[in-house]
Amino acid sequence: MAGLYIHIPFCVSKCLYCDFYSIPVSEGVLDEYTSLLLMEIGLHDRNRPIDTVYFGGGTPSLLQPFHVLKILERVQRTFHLSASPEVSLEANPESINTGRLQDYRDSGVNRLSLGVQSLQDEELRALRRNHTREVSLKALSAARQVFENLSVDIIYGIPGQTPESLHRTLLEILEFSPEHISAYELTIHKGTEFHTMQSGGELTMPDEQTVEEMFLLIHETLTGAGYEHYEISNFARPGHRCRHNMNYWLMGPYIGVGPSAHSFSDKRRWENHRDIGDWAKAIRRGLRPIATERQLSDRDLLIERLMLGLRTDIGIERDRLKCTEKVEMLIQNGHLKCEGSRLKLTPRGMLLSNRITVELLEGIWC
Ligand code: SF4
Fold it and tell me: Dihedral sign, CA of 122, 21, 263, 267?
């Protein structure tokens, strides 16, 4: 079974830290974009089994519920959709209310991912988000009334954020008992406003030690509240892991539609044109809008499997690694743990996941 990712690249304005491909939304553009998406979906292999659908962005909640309905109808007609698919939609707090959420629900969305990011107004202003704490609290209440499967995104490491303010945000979010919480560390990417501000000395980020403290605080608070820390940035109540993302981490096949969307199937990765004009031009000519594609060797696949496996609590098979000394050292340092035949990162190891992954990958061949 594959996952289907549907990219909605439009946003009302650009957040200061964002390096995603996003375009300012304008009048009428969503109708035209939806028509092109329908055409792109129609260019895919018919009857491919699909188990999850994920509307990501950008800001998918800028789509009207009737757009979502049309897209899901086309998905159903084109692919072989499983009997109980997970259908997620990312929403920003300022673009929803109970009625709109109910309409999304009626269109077939059964999992909402709400981009709260923080419940402190000064932190939201620092990120230049378009919502306030009050708007988020209303959106959380509305989401809770309509969706039995709710995920909430938060960000840590925000300028001005402290472990105490982060803890307040977490505790308030827990009052809504979301089934899933994603917690992302704020990173500064080249080309973003934050990068310019940082280069000009106008941005003071929390120091590394504070960010580590925040990560461990999130781990302690959420696992203490009954969540499973099942991937570096993701926590779920038992039985509520995101099926769509689990499929990525387990190297299952997925199809992405929309500009810049990625796909993986049959040992092949491909990426759509990033530029919406190039993407639209190809579709109008009846062509798949693929910009680049790459066939993966067995070695590439093994490396990816280990890199992705280490991000999750499934871990990797110990006997894949030949450097037992390195592994022993990481276990003794408290960065890795061995459960049965599998090696997994500890929360402290997750803080150094990139470095540890590189070290362990060297150990495949040494
Ligand atoms: S809403 Fe999301 S995608 Fe849009 S600019 Fe902000 S962070 Fe980027």
Answer: negative
101 and 186 fall within a common domain: yes
29: its two tokens: 């553009």
Range of the domain at 214: 2-248
For the question of whether the overall pTM of this predicted structure is more than 0.90, the answer is yes
The pLDDT tens digits for 203-241 are 989 999 999 999 999 999 999 999 999 999 999 999 999
Closest residue to atom 2 of ligand 1, CA basis: 58
CA–CA gap between residue 341 and residue 107 (Å, rounded): 44
Whether residues 320 and 221 share a domain: the answer is no
State the CATH number of the domain containing residue 153.
3.20.20.70
What does each C-alpha distance from 94 to 62, 187, 320 come to in angstroms? 10, 24, 47
Mutation to probe ligand 1, out of 22, 113, 127, 128 (largest number of atoms < 8 A from CB): 22
Retrieve residue 293's tokens.
């594609």
Give distance in angstroms: CA of 191 to centre of ligand 1.
14
pLDDT above 90 as % of the chain: 85
Instruction: Pick the atom of ligand 1 nearest to 18's CA.
Output: 8
Domain membership of residue 255 (yes or no) is no
Which among 248, 266, 293 is the end of a domain?
A: 248
150-156 and 111-117 beta bridge pairing: parallel
pLDDT, averaged across the chain: 94
**Final residue of a domain: which of 248, 269, 290?**
248
